[in-house]
Amino acid sequence: MAELLIIRHGQAAFGADNYDQLSDLGQRQSAAVGAHLRRTGWFPDRVITGTLTRQKETLSAMGFDAKPKEHAGFNEYDFHDLLHTRFGGRAPDLVLQDRKTHFRTLRETILEWQQGGISGARETWSQFVQRVADARDFATQPGADRVLVISSGGVIGQLVASALSTPSAIMMELNLQVNNSSLHRFLFSRGRVTLTEFNATPHFDAQRELLSYS
């Protein structure tokens, strides 16, 4: 069976005017996971990112030369849009800038979104689920034995939840566990995708100070 390795992007610039870029820590995390893969002899023969800058910067910092393909299905859900829509056009500053408040509110917002709420958001929950499934199918087309994807926490949560056939709400519980630059492995063959590893960070075993969730 072929292997699909999905890596969450390194830490982004939380609270900055432009969130979609890696922080200094995110650059170090990405370099560490790239070094780990080379050290263990894992080299991809297909590389894919979403279209987000933080995903592309992660791949660049990992140090692989392969020219990636892109699929927007690997982009994160637009949490800014969901939060602003939930609060009638503008989320409170505390929700946007305080980490604890942000992630508590985001969890509540995603659960409401999954149940058909957040009317007026740019993307519905069902549209998100479909585009993630389309991206998975794109990545697991025949012709590659080792596929590397750089994606985001919500997409990874949904891919894992789908592989395990869990209720929708489990996706968000998984999403909130996913570490920056963590590894998630799947095996795939003839349309079947099986999870074999979730949220692994062996590249931080000797560098625990690099560990982060957001």
Give an overview in words.
The chain starts with a strand and ends in a 14-residue tail after the last strand. Helix 3 (79-86) packs across helix 5 (99-114). It is 42% helix and 16% strand. Strands 3-2-4-1-5-6 form a six-stranded mixed beta sheet. It has 214 residues and is an alpha/beta fold.
Short description:
This protein has 214 residues and is of the alpha/beta class. It is 42% helix and 16% strand.
Topology:
Elements: E1 2-8, H1 24-39, E2 46-49, H2 53-62, E3 69-70, H3 79-86, H4 93-97, H5 99-114, H6 125-139, E4 146-151, H7 153-164, H8 168-175, E5 183-189, E6 192-200
Parallel strand pairs: 1-4, 2-3, 2-4
Antiparallel strand pairs: 1-5, 5-6
Keyphrases for this structure?
single chain; 214 residues; alpha/beta; Rossmann fold; 2 domains; six-stranded mixed β-sheet; 8 helices; 6 strands; 16% strand
Number of domains: 2
- Shape call: globular
Q: What is the first-to-last residue Cα distance?
A: 32 Å
Kindly report the spatial arrangement of strands forming the biggest sheet.
3-2-4-1-5-6
| Number of helical elements | 8
SS content category: alpha/beta
CATH evolutionary superfamily of the largest domain: Phosphoglycerate mutase-like
The residue fraction in helices comes out at 40-55%
Beta strand %: 15-25%
Question: Over all CA atoms, what is the radius of gyration?
Answer: 17 Å
Quick one: biggest sheet?
6 strands, mixed
Number of strands: 6
| CATH topology label of the largest domain | Rossmann fold
Write down the overall mean pLDDT: 96
Order of helices and strands: EHEHEHHHHEHHEE
Spans of 5+ residues with little confidence (pLDDT < 50)?
A: none
The appropriate CATH architecture of the largest domain is: 3-Layer(aba) Sandwich
CATH class of the largest domain: Alpha Beta
